[in-house]
Amino acid sequence: MIHCKKSTNEQGASWYSLRPTSIEIGLPDMIGIDAIHDGHILIVDDQPGNVTALTGLLVANGYRRISTTTNGRAVAAMHRAHRYDLILLDMHMPDITGLEVMKQLRAADPEHYLPVIVVTGDQHSRIAALEAGARDFIMKPYDFVELDARIRNTMEVRLLYKAVDESRRLMEQQAQHDALTGLPNRRLLLDRLENTLEQARRQQRQVGLLYMDLDGFKEVNDRYGHACGDRLLVQVAERVRNAVRRADTVARIGGDEFIVLLPEVCDVRDAERPAEKLLNVLREPFAMPEGDVQISGSIGMALYPDNGDDMERLIASADTALYSAKRAGKSRYEIARSLQ
Ligand SMILES: Nc1nc2c(ncn2[C@@H]2O[C@H](COP(=O)(O)OP(=O)(O)OP(=O)(O)O)[C@@H](O)[C@H]2O)c(=O)[nH]1
């Protein structure tokens, strides 16, 4: 850490000297001082002299990523583009007040998190800023030790908030995806299917659903081991994903069972074509460390609304058609015949 000392000469000119101290403030394991010093800071002040002075102080205190602007009106757009970890905001600028900048920041930030420390010389605007959502304030003229501590503390909270947010996002992603293949799982598929059917109902469109089960997958496990079976499932997922359109959802819903949701179907051929393509890509041998592995897949196809006017019925129809495809000799697709 670096300590700042203000000195004044006989003519009244002031300067600052920097000296390192041995004081290290303890932080939770999660956010170390290195991460804090790596936080991205924006300094906003209409006075270039203030910007330069504050930048110098931050650099001296170990901060590495500092951006600046003298234009308060540009702050919201800059934050949208760069997602600063901390904004040091001058409250009194001629063009726009700090309060107005915070209002624009809140509107621009989907997280609704204002990473703002206001910089002010006036007691009243300090309270107004805190009430408007600023995390903290720094009074002018600066007390350098206090300034450093407030910036560090606010940055620590900000980075913890980001870490929590990231881990929540990760957990949501894990709850909706298959851990082995990374494909959407049953839960996410049902969610998308529900939305797709709702839209199709409104627009009186058809939807296709392909229920696919690998043929002879148990034998791969038995002959080459479970790890080889797992690697095969990953490759199958990749091939299936690459064989269909971006708008289609490919989900792994069980051991060797996949569902492909086709939201853009005008007639049965629009579902038959991808089904044929999937069967073909599965017939190609899979290169494994254990040698080439040959498998195939069977598919049951159902169309909304002909084969089911809700999720459960549509999936049940496709499942029945899949059963028919298996009974008819596998490595083929069958179209559902009736409304379940
Ligand atoms: N390696 C691996 N195997 C799995 C996984 N989940 C389920 N299985 C196995 O996959 C097999 C699926 O069973 P089936 O569909 O009846 O096997 P199959 O040989 O493909 O049978 P058919 O569909 O009649 O051709 C079972 O042996 C499960 O133990 C997994 O995540 N990894």
Automatic annotation (TrEMBL):
Gene3D superfamilies per the UniProt record, alphabetical: 3.30.70.270, 3.40.50.2300
SUPFAM superfamilies (UniProt xref): CheY-like, Nucleotide cyclase
Residue numbers carrying 4-aspartylphosphate: 90
Keyword Heme on entry: no
Domain GGDEF: 205-338
GO BP annotations, alphabetical order: phosphorelay signal transduction system
Coiled-coil regions, chain positions: 183-210
Transmembrane segments: none
Keywords for the protein's UniProt record, in alphabetical order: Coiled coil, Phosphoprotein
Listed InterPro entries: CheY-like_superfamily, DGC-Regulatory_Protein, GGDEF_dom, Nucleotide_cyclase, Rev_trsase/Diguanyl_cyclase, Sig_transdc_resp-reg_receiver
GO molecular function list: catalytic activity
Database matches in PANTHER family: DIGUANYLATE CYCLASE DGCT-RELATED, SLL0267 PROTEIN
Name of this chain's protein: Diguanylate cyclase
